[in-house]
């Protein structure tokens, strides 16, 4: 058997397999859908899946509920690196199959390539970390129903209309305003492909009225929701930057199938008109030539060429939309949540000047016990400690881990609650809220979060464990981590309002509290702001903590202060290391050698760039 | 096989499975209880529906028995015929609505007893002490209107004003933010517990901040948002507050980290007929914070809260905890003659100096007898104050001897109580309490007898007794109304999305009061 012909005949399937395999591998290995699920702030619209009948009934009681229900369920698998992409690939494959059938039924075999278009667009969505799973699910369902329609519709316009009405009602119930795609496709199919004007117009008119009749008057939804829910123009998509970033592509994906149908109809019409023997004979000879070609190695070459073009388009698009910076930020948040501080450090190194990375890196350094020693090995900025810049006022999701670490439970409560609302009851946020309330001793509130989690797929076990703990040990004395974090919480009688991070940190080390992280952060904050008078106040308390030796950066700050300021920092037990003193003296000597700071910079940068003295001398580096 | 059968078979399978499930869950668990061991205490039930006064027209008060057992039997009756007997394997007791409403209707003014039996693994029955309740003679208003939101501070997602038919579990939307693309809904207010006159405040990036006014079927959009609002009983004027709000966070306060202050506030009034906003100098003093207006039932007095401004700045960092904790509101009233549009002189009803607390949210009962308000240690926002409790003043005795004497109600808890409202017959109050779940506010009811004694409160019943255990929303500003809101959400939504048809000029020129979008509050 001729290999070329075999390949050509089965090539479509093989090409498809290669495409979907590459798609899957790209999502699993590079994109990592876990980042969308785990990282609060990566997207909106991902919530937990309540395994409750009441949730099922509530969701199915409104149009679009079925698509939403299934979408929420399937999205839970994004939690798993290798399973989430399977879900997406299956969705894309389902769309491709539907398109294949549509094209076949409409005699549009030249349009076979369109099966990959939605897949490529969806690939671009995930490459950009934009979540449109529900909308694309609605599209899949509509394509499926359209397939059904073209199977059952007949030459009799009455039969076709009846079937359209039945399927349109089902379509609206399944996918709310997503059913408008079904309306448009049926209308165009009847008008352009089957040339049944009455049916086509009937489809368009009746179909447009269904959301009003069933949605508004039947289910009682708003007019806005009736005509926009699950569609690209839904305010639920337009409202959020994280969702409307790739809106033109979403529109394109929705619009291209109706356009293809139009083209198929137009081309069919053209073919009919151009029926002539001369053309036929030319066509026959072309077909002969084509057959002759496929008999030879040309078949293989063609197959390879088509496959390369397809993969090239997909790969090129992904390459264009790849956003390493964004991915790195999400990975940082992910590993921060997992407590993999070494990994956070490595990732933050990719974006050294980014304040979000800086904040995570500093937190990682602290957890690795290296903050005071190594902080100036990296770029630093006062806002890179606690994201205190105004631009981060609403960056709730970046702050709560740090607030919990510092014992600032009030602030953590605030940002977590805002995050819960902004990011749709993400189960990880509910988990943190439950923990936070248990740390605060607010067991009643914690139970609400725990019971909500108890019904969430994949989170029930954790919630049940803590509910049982609360029953047997309401004070949670057996949980060391909770006890440790609880010890950081300030006493109630010390209540005050604290707006600025400095005030928050200060309050955590006063009145005999030994919050070492707050101490180091406060000292670092004053050092970064070059407020030596404050450095004096704080550094002098170092011996209250369990330091065996003074961290390097703090040593340098002490030396700097003691050289230039009257008020000295003197410690009784802890001593400055000889090597630090030596390095400091060398730095001072070097500065004296040059007339200006600029002149000294290259030598100082070469030897002392990773020191506090350099930072103090040259200020905050440009970023 | 024909295609018809291919499609039919799955349908048949689903039907059979569904029927099987139904049969399983509906199977008869009842059995005769001949012997039991008496337990000398009441069974623990959730929610706590023991020793309460029940409205005769309330929905079935389903509950869960929180005792260990394999089978539960609950008998609900009044000592006469018509006892309801229920069995449950899980402890969840769901009472038939028809049986319940008949039982209550037939025993108005009588008692309601709940007897609970639990069968353990040893097949022995335990019987707990009878839970005794009273069925009031007076109905509660048929509907409750409230706002359901997440307990966030600055962010919102799905916000709606809902109405619940108290005789059933039916909840419907009055207006939610899907009708105006995700904006924010604020306070709602009714005139005389009726829904023919209604106000709803809202904010929207796309459609602006405005107030919807429903007046005898007509819906209009006023070009400014009202704060706390009170209709004059005549329905001709509305007093509302303008508040410049600041949100604060306590560094260390276990029960509630959040707090709110009004940097500035004042009261103005809106003439419904002319569409004009007017000012009374006593209600908008530059050195005072005025808020929470509430008309007396005869419309002759406006009750409100007033506190001296303790700062001369609007900069957050200059406002200290000491300044904030010094803010304590006096409860005031001022007379008003609607025919002449004339205000009297303000008088102090409850001074902060005397009580040592901040008096907030006055509401006068429709019969004019009682003034219900809350007091907390300081502040203008009692829902964030764990110390907030409900108090009552007998206005009849004030009329007799000229003294306002307040007393604390027995409905209070360690958590915040606030946002109270009266039923039209002055026999029931609805209020918000955080006693159940801390951060999450739930709606409670209490019966108030002719002497002003309030009974033990109970939470708004839900079909699923465990509903509140997982509910991540708060029920805010419960208002009792005698009828449903007839204006449809479509109509309200359309007006929101439309143009302002009542432009107003706000006659306040204070430096800090501006006609801007206010911060969202719970």
Task: Describe this structure as you would to a colleague.
The complex is a heterodimer of chains A (623) and B (522). Helices cover 70% and strands 0% of the residues of chain A. With 623 residues, chain A is mostly helical. Mean pLDDT of chain A is 88; it is low at 282-294. Residues 510-522 of chain B have low confidence and may be disordered. In chain B, 12% of the residues lie in helices and 42% in strands. With 522 residues, chain B is mainly beta.
Number of helices of chain A: 34
Computed CA radius of gyration of chain B, to the nearest angstrom:
26 Å
Low-confidence stretches of chain B: 510-522
Oligomeric form of this entry? heterodimer
Query: What is the overall pLDDT average of chain B?
Result: 89
- Quantity of strands of chain A, as a count: 0
Tally of contiguous helical segments of chain B: 7
**Uncertain spans of chain A:** 282-294
Distance between the termini of chain B: 62 Å
Strand content of chain A: under 5%
C-alpha geometry of chain B: globular
- Separation, N- and C-terminal Cα atoms of chain A: 65 Å
Summary, kept brief:
The complex is a heterodimer of chains A (623) and B (522). Chain A has 623 residues and is mainly alpha-helical.
Summarize the SSE layout with pairings.
The complex is a heterodimer of chains A (623) and B (522).
Chain A: H1 3-31, H2 34-38, H3 53-60, H4 65-75, H5 84-105, H6 117-127, H7 133-152, H8 157-175, H9 179-193, H10 197-219, H11 223-226, H12 235-238, H13 241-244, H14 247-273, H15 277-295, H16 298-321, H17 324-338, H18 341-348, H19 355-367, H20 371-374, H21 383-386, H22 396-406, H23 409-422, H24 427-439, H25 443-454, H26 460-472, H27 480-488, H28 501-508, H29 516-528, H30 532-539, H31 552-564, H32 578-593, H33 597-608, H34 612-618
Helix pairs in contact in A: 1-5, 1-16, 3-4, 4-7, 5-7, 6-16, 7-8, 7-9, 8-9, 8-10, 9-10, 9-14, 17-18, 17-19, 18-19, 22-23, 23-24, 24-25, 25-26, 28-29, 29-30, 30-31, 32-33, 33-34
Chain B: H1 3-26, E1 37-42, E2 45-46, E3 53-54, E4 63-65, E5 71-77, E6 84-88, E7 92-93, H2 97-106, E8 111-119, E9 125-129, E10 131-135, E11 143-149, E12 160-165, E13 171-176, E14 184-191, E15 194-203, E16 210-215, E17 218-222, E18 229-231, E19 237-249, E20 258-271, E21 276-279, E22 288-295, E23 301-308, H3 321-325, E24 330-337, E25 342-350, H4 352-355, E26 358-364, E27 370-376, E28 389-394, H5 395-401, E29 406-408, E30 417-422, E31 428-437, E32 440-447, E33 458-459, H6 467-470, E34 474-481, H7 489-497
Parallel strand pairs in B: 1-9, 3-10
Antiparallel strand pairs in B: 2-4, 4-7, 5-6, 5-8, 8-9, 8-10, 11-12, 11-34, 12-13, 14-15, 15-16, 16-17, 18-19, 19-20, 20-21, 22-23, 23-24, 24-25, 26-27, 27-28, 28-29, 30-31, 31-32, 32-33
């Amino acid at each position: 058997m001729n290999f070329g012909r075999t390949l050509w005949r089965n090539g479509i399937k093989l090409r498809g397999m290669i495409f979907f395999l590459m798609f899957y591998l790209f999502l699993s290995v590079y994109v990592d859908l876990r980042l969308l699920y785990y990282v609060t702030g990566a997207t909106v619209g991902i919530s937990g899946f309540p395994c409750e009948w009441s949730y099922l009934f509530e969701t199915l009681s409104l149009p679009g509920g079925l698509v939403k229900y299934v979408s929420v369920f399937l999205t839970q698998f994004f939690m798993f690196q290798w399973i989430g992409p399977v879900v997406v690939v299956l969705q894309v494959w389902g769309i491709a199959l539907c398109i294949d059938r549509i094209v076949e039924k409409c005699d549009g075999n030249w349009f076979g390539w369109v099966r990959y278009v939605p897949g490529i667009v969806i690939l671009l969505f995930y490459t950009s970390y934009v979540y449109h799973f529900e909308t694309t699910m609605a599209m899949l369902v509509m394509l499926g129903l359209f397939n059904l329609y073209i199977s059952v519709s007949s030459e009799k316009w009455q039969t076709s209309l009846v079937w359209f009405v039945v399927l349109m009602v089902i379509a609206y119930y399944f996918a709310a305003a997503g059913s408008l795609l079904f309306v448009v496709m049926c209308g165009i199919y009847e008008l352009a492909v089957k040339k049944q004007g009455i049916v086509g117009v009937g489809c368009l008119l009746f179909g447009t009225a269904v959301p009003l009749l069933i949605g508004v008057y039947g289910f009682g939804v708003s007019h806005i929701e009736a005509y926009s829910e699950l569609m690209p123009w839904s305010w639920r998509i337009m409202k959020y930057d994280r969702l409307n970033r790739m809106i033109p592509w979403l529109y394109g994906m929705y619009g291209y199938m109706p356009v293809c149908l139009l083209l198929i109809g137009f081309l069919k019409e053209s073919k009919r008109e151009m029926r002539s023997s001369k053309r036929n004979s030319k066509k026959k000879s072309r077909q002969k030539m084509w057959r002759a070609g496929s008999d030879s190695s040309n078949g293989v070459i063609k197959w390879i060429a088509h496959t390369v073009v397809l993969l090239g388009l997909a790969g090129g698009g992904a390459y264009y939309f790849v956003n390493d910076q964004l991915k790195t930020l999400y990975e940082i948040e992910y590993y921060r949540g997992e407590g993999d501080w070494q990994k956070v450090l490595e990732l933050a190194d990719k974006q050294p000047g980014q304040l979000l990375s800086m904040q995570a890196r500093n937190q990682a350094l602290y957890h690795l016990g290296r903050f005071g020693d190594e902080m100036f090995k990296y770029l630093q900025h006062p806002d890179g400690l606690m994201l205190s810049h105004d631009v981060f006022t609403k960056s709730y999701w970046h702050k709560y881990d740090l607030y919990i670490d510092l014992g600032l439970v009030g602030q953590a409560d605030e940002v977590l609650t805002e995050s819960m609302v902004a990011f749709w009851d993400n189960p990880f946020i509910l988990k943190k809220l439950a923990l936070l309330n248990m740390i605060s001793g607010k067991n009643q509130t914690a139970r609400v979060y725990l019971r909500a989690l108890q019904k969430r797929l994949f989170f029930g076990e954790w919630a049940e464990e803590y509910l049982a703990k609360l029953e047997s040990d309401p004070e949670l004395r057996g949980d060391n981590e909770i006890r440790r974090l609880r010890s950081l919480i300030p006493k109630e009688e010390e209540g005050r309002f604290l707006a600025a991070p400095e005030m928050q940190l200060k309050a955590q080390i006063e009145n005999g509290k030994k919050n070492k992280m707050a101490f180091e952060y406060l000292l670092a904050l004053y050092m970064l702001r070059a407020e030596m008078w404050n450095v004096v106040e704080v550094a002098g308390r170092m011996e209250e903590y369990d330091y065996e030796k003074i961290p390097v950066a703090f040593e340098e700050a002490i030396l700097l202060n003691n050289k230039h300021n009257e008020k000295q920092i003197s410690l009784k037990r802890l001593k400055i290391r000889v090597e630090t003193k030596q390095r400091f003296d060398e730095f001072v000597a070097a500065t004296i050698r040059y007339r200006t700071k600029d002149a000294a910079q290259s030598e100082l940068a070469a030897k002392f760039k990773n020191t506090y003295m350099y930072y103090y001398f040259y200020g905050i580096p440009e970023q | 096989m024909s295609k018809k059968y291919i499609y039919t078979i799955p349908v048949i399978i689903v039907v059979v499975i569904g029927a099987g499930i139904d049969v399983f869950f509906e199977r008869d668990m009842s059995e005769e209880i001949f012997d039991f061991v008496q337990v000398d205490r009441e069974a623990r039930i959730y929610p706590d529906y023991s020793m309460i006064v029940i409205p005769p027209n309330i929905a079935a008060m389903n509950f869960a028995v929180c005792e260990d057992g394999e089978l539960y039997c609950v008998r609900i009756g009044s000592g006469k015929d018509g006892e309801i007997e229920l069995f449950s394997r899980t402890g969840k007791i769901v009472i038939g609505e028809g049986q319940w409403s008949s039982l209550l209707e037939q025993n108005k003014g009588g008692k309601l007893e709940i007897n609970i039996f639990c069968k353990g693994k040893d097949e022995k029955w335990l019987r707990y002490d009878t839970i005794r309740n009273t069925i009031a003679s007076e109905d509660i208003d048929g509907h409750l209107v409230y706002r359901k939101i997440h307990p966030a501070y600055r962010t919102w997602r799905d916000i709606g004003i809902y109405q619940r038919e108290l005789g059933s579990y039916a909840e419907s939307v009055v207006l939610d933010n899907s009708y105006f693309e995700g904006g924010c809904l604020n306070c709602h207010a009714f005139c005389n517990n009726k829904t023919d006159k209604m106000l709803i405040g809202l904010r929207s990036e796309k459609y602006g901040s405005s107030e919807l006014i429903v007046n005898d079927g007509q819906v209009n959009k006023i070009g400014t948002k009202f704060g706390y609002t009170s209709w004059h009983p005549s329905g001709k004027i509305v007093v509302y507050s303008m508040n410049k709000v600041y949100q604060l966070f306590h560094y260390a306060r276990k029960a509630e980290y959040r707090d709110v202050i009004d940097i500035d506030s004042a009261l103005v009034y809106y003439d419904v007929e002319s569409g004009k906003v007017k000012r009374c100098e006593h209600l908008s003093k530059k050195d005072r914070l005025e808020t929470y207006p509430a008309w007396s039932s005869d419309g002759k007095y406006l009750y409100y809260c007033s506190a001296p401004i303790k700062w001369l700045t609007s900069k957050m960092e200059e406002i200290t905890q000491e300044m904030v904790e010094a803010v304590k509101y006096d409860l005031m009233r001022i007379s008003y003659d609607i025919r002449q549009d004339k205000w009297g002189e303000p008088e102090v009803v409850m001074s902060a100096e005397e009580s040592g607390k901040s008096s907030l949210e006055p509401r006068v009962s429709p019969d004019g007898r009682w003034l219900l308000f809350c007091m907390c240690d300081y502040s203008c926002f009692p829902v964030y104050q764990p110390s907030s409790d409900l108090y009552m003043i007998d206005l009849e005795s004030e009329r007799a001897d000229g003294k306002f004497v307040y007393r604390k109600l027995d409905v209070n808890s360690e958590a915040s109580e606030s946002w109270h409202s009266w039923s039209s017959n002055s026999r029931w109050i609805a209020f918000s309490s955080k006693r159940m779940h801390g951060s999450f506010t739930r709606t409670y009811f209490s019966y108030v007898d002719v002497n002003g004694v309030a009974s033990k409160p109970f939470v708004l019943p839900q079909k699923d007794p465990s509903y509140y255990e997982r509910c991540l929303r708060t029920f805010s500003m419960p208002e009792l109304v005698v009828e449903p809101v007839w204006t449809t959400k479509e109509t309200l939504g359309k007006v929101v999305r439309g143009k302002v048809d009542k432009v107003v000029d706000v006659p306040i020129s204070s430096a800090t009061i501006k006609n801007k979008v206010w911060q969202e509050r719970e």
